[in-house]
Specification:
Helices cover 23% and strands 37% of the residues. It is built from 6 helices and 10 strands, in the order H-E-E-H-H-H-E-E-E-E-E-E-H-H-E-E. It has an 8-stranded antiparallel beta sheet, with helices on both faces. The protein has a two-stranded antiparallel sheet with strand order 4-5. It is globular. Residues 1-16 and 143-150 have low confidence and may be disordered.
Length: 331
């Protein structure tokens, strides 16, 4: 369940785990276990107005001893159902305001309670629930073509709709040897498309190439991004997430009227990462992965008697295979 780039980053920074015990021929280089993909919804009730947050969570632990692996001795194992129950109890006791802060609370509680736990990794993904907006009942049944002079809709007190939108996720890694937590925040599944202002030309031309230069193409991408904080005390986690999302949207789309030209996803994501590092001093490192989801023009040449001329309207979406581009920037 944990994002692969985060594990790779951590493996370069974290302490060695599972040393070679006496009499053992082999050394354990890495280990751990946990509960993956359990759900939690937190409802905040302020009179008749309710707010909700739903999360998919994972907790993983690394223990100081390897006796569970070497000898089948389970005496130190905090079972995964207990890990899940601990999360629910902490949510009831303290509430959930921001996922990063709650993940930090969980990680610190586990290290404090279990002296034989060496490392805790907490992962949280936020489901994009939004408060339902209801039209004025007097307007129901009106034609959508009739312009409205004012917005007569209002937000519902306790009804919500799940939007197909980008997810906010975070990872907190806390080790007993290092008092400073590693905190990542990220965007997952942000799907974007523009029908012009994207080109891809002048790439390697050899005997294997079949793709022509594309001076103007439809570009569709799915964006995943994660960033690490150098300073979690002054970081505004929610605001930073929105800044990164806004930077990505503006870097991809540009001005609402004129747009922005893109020569490659590589350049687009590099410029976005550069801008985030400029805008948020608490971010020390940022990673992007962008998929190139292909929308090719349907070939109308065999059907010129039926639909003469060039086709610029009918596109054929191809989900697989797709191309992947990624980059990681640090200060």
């Amino acid at each position: 369940m944990f994002a692969t780039p985060l594990r790779q980053i951590r493996s370069q920074k974290g302490p060695e785990v599972g040393g070679q015990e006496q009499g053992q021929r082999y050394k354990i280089l890495n280990k751990g276990y946990g509960k993956d993909a359990f759900k939690l919804m937190y409802v905040k009730r302020n009179g008749s107005v309710h707010s909700i947050q739903e999360f998919e969570m994972s907790t993983h632990l690394k223990l100081s001893s390897s006796k569970d692996y070497l000898y089948g001795n389970n005496a130190d194992i905090v079972d995964t159902d207990a890990q899940k129950n601990l999360v629910y109890v902490l949510a009831k006791k303290h509430g959930i305001e921001i996922p990063e802060k709650f993940a930090l609370l969980v990680a610190r509680h586990i290290l404090s309670k279990y002296s034989h736990v060496e490392e805790v990794h907490v992962h949280m993904e936020t489901l994009p629930w939004q408060r339902m907006r209801m039209d004025d009942s007097s307007k129901l049944g009106e034609s959508n073509s009739c312009p409205r002079t004012s917005d007569s809709s209002q937000l519902h007190n306790h009804a919500f709709i799940l939007q197909s939108s980008a997810q906010h996720f975070c990872d907190v890694i806390l080790t007993r040897q290092d008092s400073k937590p590693t905190v990542f925040t990220g965007i997952k599944g942000l799907r974007l498309l523009k029908t012009t202002k994207s080109s891809f030309v002048n790439f390697v031309d050899d005997e294997y190439r079949t793709l022509p230069d594309l001076p103007d193409r439809t570009l569709c991408t799915a964006v995943d991004s994660s960033w690490e904080y150098s300073d979690i005390e002054t970081a505004d986690f929610s605001r930073t997430w929105q800044i990164v999302k806004d930077v990505v949207l503006k870097g991809f789309a540009g001005d609402p009227k004129e747009g922005i030209s893109s020569t490659s996803l590589q350049n687009t994501m590099y410029l976005s990462g550069q801008q985030v590092l400029d805008l948020v001093p608490q971010v020390s490192l940022i990673s992007f992965t962008m998929l190139n989801l292909h929308y090719g023009k349907f070939n109308t040449k065999p059907f010129q008697q039926l639909v003469p001329g060039e086709n610029n309207e009918v596109l054929e979406p191809v989900d697989k295979p797709f191309s992947t581009v990624y980059v990681q920037l640090a200060r």
